[in-house]
Design brief:
313 residues; alpha/beta; 8 helices; 32% helix
């Protein structure tokens, strides 16, 4: 068995992960599109020796998490706008050295070739620190932004996701590690025999040509997922190297751990091939009383419309 070691990931959006974090007196929501501020946030966990910095993402303005039922012209939630994660991490990677970057991207509303190219590029730019948080997109509001008549149902989204990951990995295998020769004397830039087209024809995708980026430094950027459903757990068992979870009790957490780990064998994978990373919100203070005061202050800032919207999810 591999040596047991805690892996730490930081989830610090520029407007806070908490539903009302942006309203805290010390928060800087006006800087949510400031690269300097984003760099500051990323460098903090790197100094603390965290393994990864994670950003979620969405492809629609989700008014259900912030529009007032009484005034549709006012939004109370911060979960509507932000940087595209791969773009942001490419910039942050230039001023960091060790921390990994987990960027979210959708298998429902993106295409394998473009996604494979983005993450291969990020892996090269960051010198092997890229990870892809695979999502199928839960928000039905996204469909209207991409010409879909309706948001695909769960079964279709996960079936598409399975094939999507397969295609992306074929694209990352387009070039062998030593395919590029850069031989100025002979004029050979690469060895043609070491380039492999995916030639993929499936239910959802037809992708024939090789990726126009050489093999990522990691081979495959790290595959991260957060599926809690039956389909999500099965997809994670097949492909994921990290799975996020947010169980509310020790019993539920242990059951989730056993369940996802128990699924790996059917895919010829070892239990150690998948790391389970539970989410936790930490409130630090000199005393427990002061920590609870911090927590209570944040919760008191949640606008009623936002709180009700979260109960409806």
């Amino acid at each position: 068995m591999a040596q047991r070691q805690i892996k730490l990931g930081a989830f610090i959006p520029t407007t806070s992960q908490h539903a009302a974090g942006w309203r805290h007196p010390a928060s800087r929501p006006q800087d949510h599109l400031s690269l300097d501020y984003a760099i500051e946030l990323a460098k903090t966990p790197e100094r603390g020796l965290f393994d990864a910095y994670f950003l979620a993402d969405g492809l629609a303005v989700n008014w259900s998490h912030g529009a007032s039922k009484h005034n549709k012209n006012v939004g109370y939630s911060d979960k509507v706008v932000g940087f595209e994660p791969v773009t942001l991490f490419a910039a942050i990677s230039a001023v960091t050295k060790n921390i990994g970057f987990i960027a979210t991207a959708s298998t429902t509303y993106e295409e394998p070739y473009l996604l494979a190219r983005k993450y291969a590029s990020l892996d090269h730019i960051s010198k092997g620190r890229a990870a892809w948080n695979v999502v199928t997109t839960i928000s039905a509001a996204t469909a209207r932004n991409f010409g879909f008549s309706a948001h695909p149902d769960t079964k279709v989204r996960y079936e598409r996701a399975d094939e999507f990951i397969e295609v992306v990995q074929k694209l990352w295998d387009s070039w062998e590690d030593d395919a590029f020769l850069y031989d100025k004397e002979s004029g050979h830039f690469f060895e043609a025999a070491k380039q492999h087209e995916p030639l993929h024809q499936g239910k959802y995708f037809n992708v024939q040509g090789a990726l126009n980026v050489s093999r990522p430094p990691q081979g495959y950027p790290v595959n991260v997922q957060a599926g809690q459903s039956e389909d999500g757990r099965e997809l994670a068992a097949k492909y994921a190297e990290v799975i996020f979870t947010a169980q509310q009790s020790l019993t539920d957490a242990q059951a989730f751990y056993r369940d996802v780990k128990g699924r790996l064998a059917k895919y010829a994978r070892h239990a150690d091939d998948l790391k389970v990373m539970p989410g936790v919100s930490v409130f630090v203070a000199k005393t427990e009383y002061e920590a609870k005061e911090k927590y209570a202050l944040l919760n008191s800032l949640i606008h009623p419309d936002v709180g009700l919207a979260y109960f409806q999810v």
